[in-house]
Backbone:
């Protein structure tokens, strides 16, 4: 691949994959190296552009960072490398076709062209890798950072992935010429988002502070700690600083300490403000929850009151209905009693009339018998006269 821009969704070019696999095969397969990496708290999506920066301790650490970022985050990085590698026989072909961006040192136009290319890659959605120190450390300490990385992130409007590692200095570094066996390399990834009003100096200070803090943490927890080893920082026999290292020291050493201090102060203030905002948010959530719970309790109380009122209304209605029913029953009973008394009187009167009629009939019969029957003899007075069935 030439210097043209490749879309992030296309994935890394074949040469890039070949180089990364070759390095991993050599270090992990042949030399037994192991990388223990901690991803950032918030994982950026693969199609989101990133500027990846790392602390430069050896000539092999950029490959380890590139392989780890690809494996963990699925971002394939396009590194900024010195122009000399593009012209090295054999190696130049690999560098040119892996998507690297050439940096011509010591030339203003060359630096500007590299910067413009890097901004274009980021704006196109790519991920760019660079070491803000500019060169490999010679004594194990973090060299003063240049502001170019922060400027790139601010101009392109991308987040910065800070990759801090420890252990890579145990191979191809100023103090260990060839790779040792069974090396463990530990890494920590931190995602920094530029603040709206942040400038390059402030962002550079935050990057440096993050690297310093993570370096101390990684060194304190390193599983193969050996303070007597030549690679344990600070190096017991540091190498001679390169021209770039001397330039960085001369140009940035004086102001870097103050920049880092200002960045830490601003980070602490931001963290405090963020903590206050978070507490306010939590307080609002608790208030909303309390209000909701209070509203529920109030609703339950209202429902209970409504139930009590409804029960009282129902009881009153039932009482009124019972009283009305009782009153109607009494009236009905009185009506029935009056009707029964009247009917009894009618029946009594009818019985009296019937008795009178029967008495009248008896009298008429006695008269008739007295008129039509013969006199009774005294001798036969005790005998019962025969009765004529047709007499009646």
Residues:
């Amino acid at each position: 691949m030439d210097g043209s821009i490749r879309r992030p969704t296309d994935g890394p070019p074949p040469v890039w994959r070949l180089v990364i696999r070759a390095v991993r095969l050599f270090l992990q397969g042949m030399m037994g190296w192991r990388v223990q990496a901690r991803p950032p708290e918030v994982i950026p999506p693969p199609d989101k552009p990133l500027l990846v920066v790392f602390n430069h301790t050896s000539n092999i650490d950029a490959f380890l960072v590139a392989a780890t970022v690809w494996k963990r985050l699925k971002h394939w990085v396009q590194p900024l490398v010195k122009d000399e590698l593009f012209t090295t026989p054999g190696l130049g072909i690999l560098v040119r076709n892996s998507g690297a961006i050439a940096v011509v040192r010591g030339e203003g136009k060359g630096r500007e062209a590299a910067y413009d290319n890097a901004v274009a890659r980021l704006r196109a959605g790519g991920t760019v890798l660079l070491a803000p120190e500019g060169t490999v450390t010679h004594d194990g300490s973090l060299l003063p950072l240049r502001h170019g990385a922060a400027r790139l992130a601010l101009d392109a409007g991308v987040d910065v992935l800070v990759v801090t590692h420890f252990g890579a200095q145990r191979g191809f570094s100023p103090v260990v010429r060839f790779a040792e066996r069974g090396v463990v390399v530990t890494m920590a990834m931190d995602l920094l988002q530029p603040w709206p009003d942040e400038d390059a100096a402030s962002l550079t200070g935050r990057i440096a502070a993050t690297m310093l803090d993570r370096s101390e943490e990684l060194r304190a927890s390193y599983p193969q700690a050996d303070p007597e080893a030549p690679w344990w920082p600070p190096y017991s026999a540091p190498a001679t600083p390169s021209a770039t290292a001397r330039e960085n020291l001369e140009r940035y050493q004086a102001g870097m300490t103050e920049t880092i201090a200002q960045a830490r102060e601003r980070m602490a203030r931001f963290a405090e403000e963020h903590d206050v905002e978070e507490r306010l948010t939590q307080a609002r959530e608790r208030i909303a929850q309390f209000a909701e719970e209070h509203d529920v309790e109030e609703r339950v109380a209202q429902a209970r009151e409504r139930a009590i009122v409804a029960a009282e209304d129902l009881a009153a209605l039932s009482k009124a209905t019972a009283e009305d029913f009782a009153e109607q029953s009494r009236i009905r009973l009185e009506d029935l009693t009056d009707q029964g008394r009247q009917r009894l009187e009618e029946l009594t009167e009818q019985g009296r009339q019937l008795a009178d009629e029967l008495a009248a009939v008896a009298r008429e019969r006695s008269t008739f018998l007295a008129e039509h029957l013969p006199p009774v003899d005294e001798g036969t007075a005790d005998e019962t006269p025969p009765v004529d069935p047709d007499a009646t």
Q: What stands out?
A: The helical segments are 14-30, 61-73, 91-96, 108-123, 148-156, 200-220, 243-372.
